[in-house]
Design brief:
The chain is of the alpha/beta class. The protein has 16 helices and 16 strands. The protein has helices spanning 7-14, 30-44, 57-71, 126-133, 157-165, 193-198, 201-207, 211-219, 235-238, 288-297, 325-331, 343-354, 371-376, 399-412, 428-435, 439-449; strands at residues 19-24, 49-54, 77-80, 85-88, 93-98, 115-119, 145-150, 174-175, 181-187, 239-240, 250-257, 262-269, 275-283, 307-310, 336-338, 364-367. A 9-stranded mixed sheet has the order 3-4-5-2-6-7-1-9-8. A 7-stranded mixed sheet has the order 10-16-13-12-11-14-15. α1 (7-14) packs across α2 (30-44) and α2 packs across α3 (57-71). The chain binds adenosine-5'-diphosphate (ADP) and magnesium ion. Residues 30-31 line the site of magnesium ion (MG). Magnesium ion (MG) binds at residues 30-31.
Length: 453
């Protein structure tokens, strides 16, 4: 059998440091290098044990298992589909594993490997990595190593960048503070002539990607997440499968409205004040009456909404008609409760909800079906002038997060006083303001509006 390898793949295979990362552009030949390296190691050290990991089984099956089956000679290699173990005639084995959940690492508790290989390392959390690399051990003379490949991006981007990319000049070995030898080998698309020649259109397809993905996947740029505002957002923790919300949970709607885009989120609260975003409506070019209609249509008649939250600017009166959008919405049957527009407090309240407790649980959960919110939250950029605020550009990604911010600031306030009946009825928006005011503010309002409780 004859393997032809790129120069970078050869370098990855030859490195002897305890931890090696081959990372960068998509299509640079990283996964191929990983699978080839595993083969070479298995043949060189009869009886050796290796583990190749991907975050989920579906990814593992489609990429690495398939690649190994096509690359490894059938006369010496067989693969057991049910245990995901590849065996060589010389007694060497390669386990193919995955680690979807944080606790999946414990299935490797009693395992021992000479080499552990991570493919798409930035899809793993740091704690998974630290635990798994402790499984590299064994009383034999085979080299002990952790070898990883990855593109930039993904939930583990930050720690991978710190551990390998920023820690030292790339391409040069160094010793980490923990005494382990490491090296980062950058990978470029141009390193892989097999792909460049076999699929000349590939580069063009990468060029057509949005800016951030293009920089990550085409150039292997690690600085793409510089300035990400919600660094604590982790789809594996905060995004969940939809379930039926119990009727007894308190439900809110929260909106951000402009003709350019309406964002409305439906949010439920459980008995422990956990927050579940369970439905979203994000649509452009809806006039007020149409927006109200759509929001009401999407709310089943049996679903009781405690309050519909909206930002204060909806109460601004229009120059021409003298009427506010909040009033127009109320004419279409949607009555709002005014939230506050203190951006910093709002964003920090979201961060509070995203934060993980000691058990790794967050307060905020988003149903998988709320795709726009899930897409936009991690894209928000920190404002370099005011680091506690986000940039308002690109504007298109701000609407769903703004709606969530309105909710978060409302929810983080001390529990509002109970609604009160007054001597005469107030318009809906004033009543809502009154309901969420402190006792001191209420007294002021009553005096100004000539009311008695
Ligand atoms: N040494 C090689 N010989 C033949 N084909 C290769 C080689 N290295 C990579 N390729 C092919 O190039 C493509 C991209 O390689 P891959 O390893 O998937 O890249 P990456 O993991 O860096 O995104 C794949 O189709 C792969 O089979
Ligand atoms: Mg790959």
């Amino acid at each position: 059998m004859k393997l032809t390898l790129t120069k970078k793949q050869k370098e990855f295979i030859d490195r002897s440091e305890a931890e090696v990362l081959f990372g960068g552009a998509a299509g640079g030949g990283k996964s191929y290098g990983q699978v080839a390296d595993a083969l070479i190691f298995a043949l060189k050290y009869p009886g050796s044990k290796q583990l190749i990991l991907r975050r989920t089984f579906a990814e593992l099956d489609k990429s690495l298992i398939r690649l190994a089956l096509s690359l490894y000679p059938r006369q010496i290699y067989s693969f057991n589909q049910s245990s995901h173990t590849g065996r060589f005639q010389n007694g060497s084995i390669i386990d193919f594993g995955y680690c979807a959940g944080e606790l999946d690492v414990y299935q490797y508790q009693s395992a021992e490997y000479d080499v552990i290989r991570f493919d798409e390392l930035t899809h793993f959390t740091e704690s998974q990595y630290i635990y798994l690399i402790s499984r590299v051990r064994g009383a034999n003379d085979f080299p002990k190593q952790v070898k990883s490949t990855t593109n930039p991006g993904g939930i583990g981007h930050g720690w991978v960048k710190a551990r390998f990319v920023d820690a030292h000049k790339s391409g040069e070995p160094f010793t980490g503070e923990d005494g382990l030898k490491r090296i980062f080998i950058p990978s470029l698309l141009s390193d892989n002539k097999f792909l460049e020649e076999g699929d000349p259109e590939y580069r063009r397809r990468l060029l057509a990607l949005p800016e951030r993905e293009r920089r990550a996947l085409l150039y292997g740029d690690w600085n793409i997440f510089e300035g990400q505002y919600f660094t604590e957002f982790d789809p594996t923790r905060h995004v969940i499968a939809p379930f039926e919300i119990p009727p007894s949970w308190r439900k809110y709607r929260t909106i951000d409205y402009g003709l350019d885009r309406l964002a409305c989120l439906w949010i439920a609260i459980d008995g422990e004040r956990n927050v579940y975003v369970y439905r979203e409506l994000c649509e452009s070019d809806l006039i007020v009456s149409r927006a109200a209609e759509k929001i009401l249509e999407l709310t089943p008649p049996t679903e009781r909404i405690y309050a519909t939250l909206a930002p204060p600017d909806l109460w601004a009166r229009s120059q021409e008609s003298g009427r506010s959008k909040a009033l127009l919405f109320s004419e279409s049957g949607l009555y709002f409760t005014k939230t506050a527009n203190d951006r910093e407090t709002g964003w920090l309240s979201i961060k509070e909800l995203l934060r993980l407790d000691k058990e790794g649980r967050a307060k905020l959960h988003i149903f998988r079906t709320c795709t726009e919110l899930i897409k936009c939250l991690p894209l928000l950029q920190t404002d370099p002038m005011y680091p506690t605020d986000t940039l308002t550009e690109p504007h298109a990604i701000t609407h769903a997060p703004d709606a969530l911010r309105g909710f978060a600031i409302y929810f983080s306030r001390p529990t509002p006083l109970a609604p009160q009946t007054l001597s005469h009825a107030l318009p809906a928006d004033m009543q809502a303001d009154y309901d969420r005011a402190s006792e001191e503010e209420r007294e002021y309002m009553r005096r100004r509006w000539g009311l008695t409780p």
